[in-house]
């Protein structure tokens, strides 16, 4: 077993997880560890005695129970602690999920036991309110609390106007303007990274997540790629999810930039992300109002009055259709769901 010894509390262990552990039947010699990195078929774990590489049991693999970065697991140390076998995954406090890439209708847990999700969007050409709404929906559904970071403030002439735009689609969500170049706003993030707390970063490639992590952990552990000047976009720097322990005791999990975010069972997160439209819809004349051409539609009236934008309503419709499609896909299969989707688009 390599590396320095770690304190389980610094890693995020608390009484809630201890209570969950007490409910499991485990052998006395088994230990607790947290998943730090997921490789192909292998996991790097952090334990109170240092780092160790591990594999899962055949039973977990057979049941499609795969640990994610941030999971707490029960392990059996082998070969004098040089390797380990993961026997159980503790119930998760929160999980960050999406549908697996491709046509398979399966859930992919990409990070677990997160307290705060930093949604990072840069103040250059990447700035996109519709993408932000999608990230908020996924974050709310994870069980974690979203915090929006507007990065690369040094590239914007008026970052406060961008903050105001963000606040229209994310009421009540903390928004921080940050520049890794000048250091602006970085100290404000420390309140979310106290001892025992876990934060995760989410954002598209080129928004400065790796640079931000380097600032937070105080070293250049994450490789940084420059963005293309012509379109403001960047290459993916991070190729795998990884958990970092800060000197202050907080934990940060990096997620690779995802070109294709797909929603997974996000009905709860959807309501949180579009709470303003939900409130307006409660005042519509008809309970099943689709906010199209129905009389007495409070949502359309709000657009006419300038209280809501047509773009936000269209984003609401698009994400709602996507969630409905995923629900049908899981229930009836892809072929039937595609037929219903085509019928709806054709107005049949």
From TrEMBL:
Domain CP-type G residue range list: 106-261
One GO CC term on file: cytoplasm
The record's free-text note on cofactor binding: Binds 1 zinc ion per subunit.
UniProt keyword rRNA-binding present: yes
Gene3D superfamilies the UniProt entry points to: Nucleic acid-binding proteins, P-loop containing nucleotide triphosphate hydrolases, Probable gtpase engc, domain 3
Binding site for GTP: 151-154, 203-211
Domain EngC GTPase: 112-259
EC number(s) recorded for this UniProt protein: 3.6.1.-
Gene Ontology terms for molecular function: GTP binding; GTPase activity; metal ion binding; rRNA binding
Top-tier EC class: hydrolase
Quaternary organization: Monomer. Associates with 30S ribosomal subunit, binds 16S rRNA.
Similarity comment text for this entry: Belongs to the TRAFAC class YlqF/YawG GTPase family. RsgA subfamily.
Job of this protein: One of several proteins that assist in the late maturation steps of the functional core of the 30S ribosomal subunit. Helps release RbfA from mature subunits. May play a role in the assembly of ribosomal proteins into the subunit. Circularly permuted GTPase that catalyzes slow GTP hydrolysis, GTPase activity is stimulated by the 30S ribosomal subunit.
Name of the protein this chain belongs to: Small ribosomal subunit biogenesis GTPase RsgA
Naturally occurring in which organism (per UniProt): Halonatronomonas betaini
Higher taxonomy: Bacteria, Bacillati, Bacillota, Clostridia, Halanaerobiales
Gene label: rsgA
């Amino acid at each position: 077993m390599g590396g320095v010894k770690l304190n389980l509390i610094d890693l995020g262990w608390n009484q809630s997880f201890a209570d969950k552990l007490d409910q499991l039947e485990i052998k006395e010699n088994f230990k607790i560890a947290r998943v730090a990195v997921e490789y192909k078929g292998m996991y790097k774990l952090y334990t109170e005695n240092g780092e160790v590489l591990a594999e899962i049991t055949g039973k977990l693999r057979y049941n499609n129970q795969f640990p994610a970065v941030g999971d707490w697991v029960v392990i059996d140390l082998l070969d004098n602690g040089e390797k380990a076998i993961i026997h159980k995954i503790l119930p998760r406090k929160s999980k960050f999920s999406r549908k697996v890439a491709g046509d398979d209708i399966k859930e992919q847990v990409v990070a677990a036991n997160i307290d705060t999700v930093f949604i990072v969007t840069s103040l250059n050409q990447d700035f996109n309110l519709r993408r932000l709404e999608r990230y908020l929906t996924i974050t709310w559904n994870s069980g974690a609390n979203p915090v929006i970071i507007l990065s690369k403030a040094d590239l914007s002439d008026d970052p406060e106007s961008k903050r105001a735009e963000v606040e229209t689609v994310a009421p009540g969500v903390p928004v921080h303007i940050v520049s890794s170049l000048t250091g602006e706003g970085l100290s404000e993030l420390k309140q979310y990274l106290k001892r025992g707390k876990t934060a995760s970063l989410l954002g598209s490639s080129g928004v400065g997540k790796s640079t931000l992590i380097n600032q937070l952990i105080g070293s250049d552990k994450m490789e940084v790629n420059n963005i293309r000047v012509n379109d403001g976009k960047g290459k993916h720097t991070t190729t795998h999810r990884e958990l970092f322990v800060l000197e202050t005791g907080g934990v940060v999990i990096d997620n690779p930039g995802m070109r294709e975010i797909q929603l997974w069972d996000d009905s709860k997160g959807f309501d949180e992300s579009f709470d303003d439209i939900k409130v307006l819809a409660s005042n519509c004349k008809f309970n099943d109002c689709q906010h199209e051409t129905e009389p007495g539609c409070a949502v359309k009236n709000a657009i006419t009055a300038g209280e809501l934008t047509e773009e936000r309503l269209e984003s609401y419709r698009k994400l709602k259709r996507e969630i409905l499609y995923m629900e049908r896909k899981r229930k009836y299969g892809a072929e039937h769901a595609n037929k219903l989707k085509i019928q709806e688009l054709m107005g049949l």
